[in-house]
Queue: 2 jobs
Job 1
Amino acid sequence: MEAVANCSLRVKRLLLDPKFEGYKLSLEPLACYQLGLDSAVAEVKLRDDQYTLDHMRAFGMYNYLHLDSWYQDNVYYVDQLGRVMNLSVTLDTALRKPREVFRLPTDLTACDNRLCASIHFSSSTWVTISDGTGRLYLIKTGKRGDAASEKWEIMFNEEFGSPFVIAHSVSFVKSDVHSVAGLLLRVEKDELDAKGSGFHVSLEWVTITEVDKEENQRYEIFRRRVLRGKSVPHYAAIEPGGDGLMIVSYKPFTFMQDEENQLEENEDGKIADKKKDPVYYWQQTEDDLTVTIHLPQDITKDDIQVQFSPDHIIVALKSQPPLVEGKLCSSIDHESCTWIIRDNSLEISLIKKDEGPMWPELIVGDSRGELIMDSSQCSAVAERLMHLTSEEMHPNPDKENPPCNAQELEECDIFLEDSTSLCRFDGNTLKITHVVNLGSNQYLFSAVVNPKEMPCFCLRHDIDALLWQPRSDQPDSMWEHIATFNALGYVQASKQDKKFTACPPNYSYAAICECLRRVFIYRQPTPLSTVLYNRKEGRQVGQVAKQLVATLEASDPILGFQATNERLFVLTTKSLFLIKVNTEN
């Protein structure tokens, strides 16, 4: 078994700006367009039995607006009639109503324990859809956005048990065979978890493969694998070729097959340990030692062979390998040693040559024996160790120089998930091959920069937010630092009502969306068209980073949020808003 590579994320210093001075609030107006929806979004509120933080993260904060990264400025949502609706934007001033591209065959309202419907665009011509009732659809779309060639056709649909949402999916071809792999996220009741929340999180990694390619194109399940953990992953994505999986999570995930095998091994080990009773028991005083060996039935004095020497002992039964043999821990008076059979046991008395010192073991390197200590010896040991213990749980002997003062931390620097890790799983061995301990690098959001690559993830580094692109084909440098959002790590922490965070593929800005109405936009520093001076330092400022605020004319909660190079899309229950951020790509 190969060792797990403990990796670190390598920051590109050239992408950091140590002289960043902050964002300047800009009052320039942002063009905002509103489209009313014919039918409301198919929002599914949390039920009374979905009360944990994991339920809130997985389903309560779900993004109901889906961006097609293969075709810019195309967004999708599912309405209450079970229709998949698409809005394609070319001109902001000539917006058309969202159009229906597909209708789910099942009645969504018939399932009491359903989740929100979910969509993921696996490639430029393939889509995976969950209706929220536990059924998965694999759909061939043709070239999306082109009315002449676009046709959504179901190629596979099957029930996968309890309801789930699609976390990620990819389309790939191996040996001329087309496959689609998807990650299905569930939060399930765990009857064995009495002390925790009573739930566990499962990620089912399912691969659907093409069969009967020549006659009639048909797809079947090729493989199903399940990972289980105790927290909803911040980020989970399959590699482009379907060979591996990357997960960012607070609690670790393991494949169920490995967990079951490990449980079996542990049980076998426990049984084996129970079967392996000590070969001998021994006691000691300051003067002598007593060794007791249990004997088989019908053993007589003539069947036993015991040999003593100053620092060696051999105990054997006739015509059998020695029961006990080896070098003694210290020297004995071998001429004074004796042995006797008593109650089907052999008792050996050894006289220490040097009185006083206690032996740590009877035979050097032999762990088959068990030392038995009487109560007086236990009390003596406890008394000798008394000066090393304290009645206080944490006495803190160095009170004058405490290592850390939590009161000096600002509120935005404090977050609970300080043991978050990034793991890469191999799809064949189902083992972790690479792991990064993210420590205080708080996860912020994910974004698709190149749809042919894995989604990027954004982490907080000090006050900045750094965007990382996974490179599954580069095992020695698997995560690349591609962009920096200056001070965004600090800024986002102050937004207590934030619901979504996003950035466009060209990372020209980052945007934070609150639960209601407000959207904050933080542009990357850009050169100034006019001369601006810093009065304190008496120097000219060459570029400035702007903060903009958009306030929506809507009272409904925000359900979805997506960013493209030119626009922001904001979805509420009954409206879809477009905010023009950049005039050109």
Note: The two ends are 48 Å apart (CA to CA).
Job 2
Amino acid sequence: MEKMEHFSHIHPLLLKQEKTDNNNNNNLVLCSGCENPISSGPVFSCDKCNYILHKTCVEIARHIKHPFHPQHPLVLLSTSPYEGPYVCDSCRGLFRNFVYHCYTCSYDLDVSCASECNPDDGHKHDFMSVTNPQSFVCYACGLQGNEGLACLCTVCQIWVHSSCAELPLAVRIKSHDHPLKLTYLLHHIYGFWGSITCGVCNGAMSSAFAGYFCSTCRFPVHLKCLQEDLRDDWAVEDEKSSTYYETDESLDIDFTCSFFGHEHLLKLADEESDLRYSGKLCDACIQPIVPPLFSCEEENCGFILHQSCVELPRTTLHPFHAHPLTLLPKAPHYDGIYRCDGCKRLSNGFVYRCDVCQFDLDVCCGSLRERIEHESHMHPLLLKKTTVARQCKGCHRWSKHVLVCEVCEDFAIDCGCATLPRGAWCMYDKHPLSLNYFVEEGLREYECGICNEKICPKQWFYYCDDCDYGAHPYCVEGKCRLVKFGGSFQYDVHSHPLALVEETDENTKCEACGECCNGWTLECGQCKSYFHREGLCFWKQFKKSDKYFKLSGIMRHRYAANVLASMPNVTNNKAKGS
């Protein structure tokens, strides 16, 4: 029996064959997604509760561009983004569950209305030729249209060039075996926003606009390749008489995309056996990376992202903050190193940020679901910002940004403990360490094998059964778990770009103060100069820079706390009771 995890529900869903008698209103079963009755057919349901989804509702896209709202992409949410039900802006019906939502305009479409547009359909509404009183961006080709004669779809309220309105729905090209279809939803076909490579001219084409594609092998083609230079090479295919056939041959398409956080094109790599990326970290979430992934085409760049991080929403509403958070490729904290307001860890990855409140969440905390299941507790946990600080069961620190149990009123864990890996490696032990959640009566106190201080048996700790070895989570993690070393940044302290390194030789001297560089260090690859990246030395140098005077008072305070902390993940009392 097929089992899957779905973003809309905290429990695994099982594929079943539903047999429901919908003639009996007492036995009427509604889909938890589209809210329509479920008749006989395949469904995904939860064995632990009454959650059930049509198989088609499970398979719908998380992000779409829809002709009913062409200005912005729509994001699929599992529940209404408002306190009560939402009103579909197409049919004006009231719904509580699945919704395609625009964060910018608060535009909402229910699943049924959103599915009225098939990505294979091209655009089958009639265009009306009218005089446009102002310039516009063509919804098909993405180019600017001038005042004058243009074509308008009165159903979808979109403007296109007159020439684009006459594009055939299906075509053939001599250099490709299969028919090609017109689609206005390339991103839906290829599964991501960004640029892909045209199979004819090898140029970049945006998935945000229309294009031709092969439904058999996903061969993409520019509109301009049909309209301009290669027009003589094409033959218009009569859609009704075209014959679609299968072939054993498939083309290896080179998929590339442009990304808002990087100046170069990124290339898709989906070979799981590719060892080139072993041991590397994603530049967004700073987690180990495995295919499918996107890497920079420039050989010496090293920028790399999980495919899931490429598809992160640019804006999000999070339970921890009242305002929308915007995804930035780099935090505006001088060199991009910031402290997450959720887990309190330092990071130099992507950040979900509110500029109004200067509130920051790293990708891991910003992507947490509102309800999750955690191995440390029997009930689902709810992500919540509380009015009164709660004590975390894992580390005994107090926080308002917690995951709470609605059944057990006294259970809460903070984001730092909620995102701890279940297993970890430590340089002082040759075996993997397991995270111990549960307190046993009479459990003896262990001594941390890293800091040599006592471990409180009532708090979570990492443990090796083979060696009878224990360690504090913050000692195993250190302060570098969400920091990617390397790269380069132009600091005011030196004329050349400097790279961030975790540690250097014992005798390495700081060029600014002459003391040994212990901990994070800035290294110049050209002249082999070294500078402190933390502590008083770095802070004194930073206060001389122009960047310092551009920061607000609260930003200076926060940045000083990050720079001067000798062990940023540890409070002065470490863990009360240890």
Note: The CA atoms of residues 161 and 256 lie 27 Å apart.
